[in-house]
Structure formats: C-alpha cells, structure tokens
Amino acid sequence: MLLSFSITPLGVGESVGEYVADAVRVVRGSGLPNRTDAMFTTVEGDWDEVMAVLKAAVDAVQARAPRVSVVMKADVRPGVENALTKKVADVEAYLADPGRRLDS
C-alpha cells in the first residue's frame, strides 16, 4: 500500500516548516520506505503500518499546533512491493523511450 499525505498545522502562523518537519521525522524514523516532496509525503507498507505512521505524524504536529489538517490518498494493492520507486521508474522509462511498452 502507498499512502500519500499532507499534514498542515493550523493556527500557528504562515511559516509551518518546523511543524511539518516534526511529521517528517516520524515518517523517516518509521523504517518504512518513504519519500517527501514539496506537497506530500508518501510511505509504503501494509495498511496497519502506514496508518500507524500517519497517526504518529499527526500526533507529533498536534502536540504543538491547536488544529491539524490532513489530506491523504491511498493506493491499496495487496501483494505489490516497491511501488514507491517502481511507479516513478516506469514513467521515466516511458519518457526516455515513448515507443516502449512498459508491460513488456
């Protein structure tokens, strides 16, 4: 399962980077494969693992912010592993060779 999420502290002013860093520390400390970009953090694992990481990340931000907003999207595909890197690699391969069929 891939879970992409954005955690935004509310009521703390415009600069929220230090609060978001609290959440990212939790994700990186989880030991699960993960990636953070400018808008979302994505973590890969089974349902219980990724939801536990999401809860812990929200709890870390909520410890310092009066309100927390969470946006998430999940790709639930039992038995699929390494989707975090494979999906991007497939797109990059197609960009490098548009005539290539990725499923071959």
Automatic annotation (TrEMBL):
Residues 4-92 form the Thiamine-binding protein domain. Pfam families: Thiamine_BP. It comes from the Bacteria. Belongs to the UPF0045 family. This is MTH1187 family thiamine-binding protein. It comes from Luedemannella flava.
